[in-house]
Amino acid sequence: MLKKLLSILLCVLFAATSLLLAGCNGDEEESKYEVSSDVSEGGFLNEVKNWNGETVNILTFAKDSYTFSDCEIDAEEILDEPVNDAFYERNAIIEEKYGIEIVGCFPEPGEDYIDMLRQDVESGLNEYDAICAAITYTAPLAIEGLFYDISEIQNKYIHYDQKWWDQTLIRDTSINGNIYFLSGDAIVEDDEATWAIFFNKDLVSKYGLDDPYQIVRDGKWTFDTMHELIQKVDLMHGSTKSYDPEVGDQWGMVVQSYDFLLFMQGAGQTLVDNTGETPRFRIDDARNIQVFTQFTNMVYDEQNVGIADRHGYWEDMYKNEGQIFENGNALFMPNAISIVNGEGLRNAEIHYGLLPMPKADELQDEYTTSVNVYRYPIFAIPTSNVEKLDVTCYALEAMAYYGGEMVTEEYYDRTLTYKRFQDDDSREMLDLIFRNRTYDLGTIFNFHNGGGDGSLYFYTKLIGKLSTDIVSTYEGLKDNYQAGLNEFIEQCYS
Question: What is the pTM of this model?
Answer without folding.
Answer: 0.90
